[in-house]
Design goal:
Helix content: 40-55%
Largest sheet: 7 strands, mixed
Number of domains: 2
Strand content: 5-15%
CATH architecture of the largest domain: 3-Layer(aba) Sandwich
CATH topology of the largest domain: Aspartate Aminotransferase, domain 2
Number of strands: 15
Distance between the termini: 46 Å
Shape: globular
Number of helices: 13
Order of helices and strands: HEHHEHEHEHEHEHEEHHHEEEEHEEEH
Bound molecules: pyridoxal-5'-phosphate
Strand order of the largest sheet: 2-8-7-6-5-3-4
CATH class of the largest domain: Alpha Beta
Radius of gyration: 21 Å
CATH superfamily of the largest domain: Type I PLP-dependent aspartate aminotransferase-like (Major domain)
Length: 396
């Protein structure tokens, strides 16, 4: 079967693939500790569900404007002003089916063949492929764990070319959980300031913070706001992954372009989910706070547990819900007579023989690491640590 050439440049999402393999094993009755998912285990808050029930009962089940219902766009503007100090008008907001669609629409609306987008590694797996699907080229700037996974401004300067159309920032980041410091953000701002490109800030994990404050690029460089595209959504903060609710805010021409893409592809995000998102944004914040307290306890338990294992080292993440463990200390040891040489091989052994699902670092642009999500109960995390210990003990 002949398929489009553009598909040859992209790969299936390895996180989704590993997660479904682990879930398939679990469905067969195999006792798998699944630490591969990128979604909260908490249920969607009741007041959010109730708003969806009310919308259904009221017959709010028809098309809405592609851009989203006016009251939701207004609520998003209020949220951006309150939380991020950003002033956008509702016309600068597009409601999408998840942050993912916002990013996809952005790439389709802005990028041409030959254009480049700077992506910092380790990166969320979808960024480079979304750029490629638009015919453009992701330019990867590597970061170092000892710098808190923040990019070196000189490396950004070297990566910028006349073809650079955008830079993507993600703090707290997936897969590292790193939160950029003021200095790190200033470094990025200084590097891109003289260059005519857009800045995408993917703030999807902004509420999941364990230490100190989180700043955005707009806090350190207000002069760059006119070329800022904010992407966010309800999935992580409100445990609403399945509802598919996200949004983007940015310069009018960019948002209009993204709307055009959406007009001719999916039209509006679900009308019912929009009402639920409205309730989430207008509702109390204590459900988020409760989740964060629990995530912090899980983070401490799990990351400290990882660091107690000989050959595994893990930086304490300041945000999101991922432990990004450096497993290179296990390389060279052997399992069943075969030397360990990579994180993919290690992840496969871990799933097949020890029944723990994590995601190898290579697809995140960081070979040598395995990402474990800690969005599961402390009991399950403890069990996972026990099995990781079994693996370490089994290596020679
Ligand atoms: C960094 C990052 N951005 C965006 C998303 C998109 O999430 P959603 O489409 O559910 O809003 C994810 C989901 O895993 C993510 O990790």
């Amino acid at each position: 079967m002949k398929l489009a050439r553009r598909l040859q440049a992209i790969k299936p999402s390895p996180t989704l693939a590993l997660n479904s393999r682990a879930k398939a094993l679990a469905a067969q009755g195999v006792d798998v500790v699944v630490l591969a998912a990128g979604e909260p285990d908490f249920d969607t808050p009741d007041y959010v569900k109730q708003a969806a029930v009310d919308a259904l009962r009221a017959g709010f089940t028809k098309y809405t404007p592609t851009v989203g219902i006016p009251e939701l766009r207004e609520a998003i503007c209020r949220k951006l002003e309150k939380d991020n100090g950003l002033r956008f008008t509702p016309e600068q907001v597009l409601v999408t089916a998840g942050g993912k669609q916002a990013l996809y629409n952005f790439c389709q609306a802005v990028l041409d063949e030959g254009d480049e987008v700077i992506v910092f590694a380790p990166f969320w797996v979808s960024y480079p492929d979304m750029v490629r699907l638009a015919g453009a080229t992701p330019v990867i700037v590597n970061t170092r764990e000892e710098d808190g996974f923040a990019p070196d401004p000189d490396a950004i300067r070297r990566a910028l070319t006349p073809r650079t159309r955008a830079v993507i920032i993600n703090s707290p980041g997936n897969p590292t959980g790193a939160v950029y410091s003021r200095a790190a953000l200033q470094g990025i701002a200084d590097a891109v300031r003289g260059h005519d490109c857009l800045i995408v800030t993917d703030d999807i994990y902004e509420k999941l913070l364990y230490t100190g404050e989180r700043l955005g690029i707009s806090d350190v460089a207000p002069d760059l706001v006119p070329r800022l595209v904010v992407v966010n959504g309800m999935s992580k903060a409100y445990s609403m992954t399945g509802w598919r609710m996200g949004y983007a805010a940015g310069p009018r021409p960019v948002i209009n372009g993204m709307q055009l893409v959406q007009d001719q592809s999916t039209s509006n995000a679900s009308s019912i989910a929009q009402k639920a998102a409205l309730a989430a944004l207008n509702g109390p914040t204590d459900t988020i706070a409760t989740m964060v307290v629990e995530y912090r306890a899980r983070r401490d338990l799990f990351v400290n547990g990882l660091n107690a294992l000989d050959g595994i080292r893990c930086r304490m993440p300041e945000g999101a819900f991922y432990a990004f463990a450096d497993v290179r200390g296990l390389y060279g040891r052997s399992y069943k007579g075969k030397a360990i040489t990579g994180s993919m091989q290690l992840s496969e052994i871990l799933l097949d023989d020890f029944r723990v699902a994590g995601v190898p670092g290579d697809p995140f642009g960081a070979e040598g690491y395995i990402r474990f999500s800690f969005v599961t109960s402390r009991e399950v995390l403890g069990k996972g640590l026990g099995r990781l210990n079994d693996l370490v003990q089994a290596l020679r």
